[in-house]
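A protein record in our archive is deliberately plain, so that people and models can read it alike. The tokens are whole numbers drawn from a learned vocabulary of local backbone shapes. For reference, a complete record is included directly beneath this paragraph.
>
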Amino acid sequence: MDVDLIFKRGMAYTLAAAAIVGAYFGVVAAIAELVHTRVPSSGPYGLILAVVVTALLFDPVRKWIQEKLDQFFFRAGYDYRRTLIEFGRELSSETDLDKMLSSLVDRLARTLLVDRIAIFLGNSDSSRFELSKSFGIAHVTGLDLSFLAKPRIEDSAGHIFFENTHQLPRENGAAQEAIGRLDLNYYIPCHARQKTIAFLGLGKTMQGDFLSSEDVELLQALAGYIGIAIQNGRLYASLEQKVSEYERLKDFNENIVESINVGVMAVDLQDRIESWNSQMEVTYAQPRWQVVGRSLSEVFPASFVEEFYRVRQNPGIHNLYKFRLVTPTGESRVVNVAMAPLVTRKFNVVGRLVIMDDITERIELEVQLTQADKLSSIGLLAAGVAHEVNTPLAVISSYTQMLAKQLQSDPRKAGLLEKITRQTFRASEIVNNLLNFSRTTGTELTEISLNKVIVDTMALLEHQFKVAHIQVQSDLNEKLPLIQGNAGRLQQVFLNLFLNAKDAMTGGGTLNVATLNGEFVSVRVSDTGSGIAQENIQRIYDPFFTTKTAPAEGQNRGTGLGLSVTYGIIQEHAGNIRVESRPGEGTTFTLDFPLISTRKAVHV
């Protein structure tokens, strides 16, 4: 291959040299004649100038003539060489290593017309090579390619050449087997950063000829581009892997922040909100897209911002316990707040982290537990007091009735005795209420209709409502399911609520009673009375607590046991009672009772 190449190149360069020499002397003579003709006084300096100008122009002209001769005599070879070099320079633009190697093998196979091509990639320290891509090679798994990693005499030549791949007396047995099965004559190393990271292996041409020295030199030049492209591909793959790992960790951390049941907010050094998790959206009733990027003072009320500024410059973690936070919707939430510096791995402060734990429902449960514990204690006390009081009340009542019979002829004294008797009966009723309050177990429950209990209770109070100018409006759900309850005990509940509503509407008003069907069977009792002051809301279920003023003629002052008894009966029925009231705007009591299926499931 090289003899043929030398012969053709010799002919081409002989013709090129003759043409260049003729052109050279022609140009020199022409320029000299021009200088002598146009500038006769220049003398020998003009000739020297002409020679210098010709020498400067000669090399570019020579290269141009040589390029044209190469194109004429070696058109196919010239085109594929230039194409391969351009292709090699473009290899680095492909970041996918697998696609880049496949494209390389395909281009070399079509351009050099060789029967076998392989690319062997080395590991991180180039101590071991593996076959990565190939053309024309099959069934070569399990080969020992350690011969590529060993120092060789041929390294100085820039490539390894095996003239006969089946007769290799200098190689060991494993290398002989690998080289013979691969049947590759050329192994060209691909370097990057002075380290061999791959080998390009090629066989003979399709006609069975070896590659020319010019082809090998071209491949050695191309190997440099291949080495850089392989290293770039590996770096890009490593970067992609790190980015993917970073994204995975980022998503994992974000999922943790989103999943925890406390609000988490991050604020930068300029007090702008940078992060806002899902629980913060629930707690503060603001979606993150409306708050992220805004100043803290634009989002939160002044009371919270003031507390934040107070501890912002101080190191360490600061806590606000049972802080009342008013949301943009007007709802008041009770939260425990923890404020801590947000630091980097190098302990540089880049902002502050604010964690809010919404304890509103927890506080309500604590109040209910406190109330239940208080009522339990009062119930035990009430049972003992009731039994002790009943005895003297019975004696007083008996002697009063005996005196009343003896003094029937004296109207004034008989009237006084009648009043004593009525107050005795009233005291006895209070004692019975205390006993009922203490007996919260043993009540027989059956399937009952709340609508019927409400209608029966309103019928008992119809006359009183009429006298007090109370208008009753009822909205009873006809499809209301039955509940497990005691009709007598529940009638006492509604009786207490209706009478309290009547007493609150001293000048008349409207009583609204509605039943609803949903997750619970609910009853809503609303009045248009004077309402309850906020400071008294937490005490309305306390025994003997009452807000009723001195009674009018013929009326009794409240004993403060009605709502306590009501609360105990609701607890018996596994229900819940809530109150909403504002002074001057009336009061609404909501009673929730579990469905029969739910109650049975709880007791199973």
